[in-house]
Design a protein that fits this description.
single chain; 134 residues; mainly alpha; 6 helices; 3 strands; 51% helix; 7% strand; globular
Length: 134
């Protein structure tokens, strides 16, 4: 069940300079490695977004909608906007500011390591077990 962008989205991507639509990448790492900013414009879905964790783990600056943060622990260091125009402005701002991208990317890497690593998951599971015994 792959993602199938609507015809309108395909048309918009074709008409926008520099926009490439690549649905259903089996492994995001290579693509993320070629990009300065990870953009997560989610408008539907539930649960934690692995794409957010993957981008953060690679030290990428992230611009996203609030839905992309569903299930994330702590305070992810991202540029988050619900309004499409404001999200686009945040992306443009990040693309134009290499220092901000580096700072946010480094902070994202620290955040994901602290909040979503295997060690963090083990700590959370141990805490839940301890609380259940009490």
């Amino acid at each position: 069940f792959g993602f199938q962008p609507s015809p309108r989205v395909v048309t918009l991507c074709r008409s926008a300079g520099g926009v490439t639509l690549t649905p259903d990448l089996p492994d995001l790492r290579a693509e993320l490695g070629r990009r300065a900013v990870a953009v997560l414009p989610f408008v539907s879905g539930r649960g934690i977004k692995n794409k957010l964790l993957e981008a953060a783990a690679m030290g990428r600056a992230v611009a996203c909608t609030p839905l992309a943060l569903t299930g994330a622990r702590g305070r992810p260091p991202v540029r988050c906007e619900a309004d499409p125009a404001r999200l686009a402005a945040a992306v443009a701002d990040l693309l134009g500011d290499a220092d901000q991208r580096r700072r946010l990317g480094a902070a994202a890497r620290e955040w994901v390591t602290a909040e979503h690593s295997w060690a963090a998951a083990a700590r959370a599971a141990a805490a839940a077990l301890t609380a259940a015994r009490a």
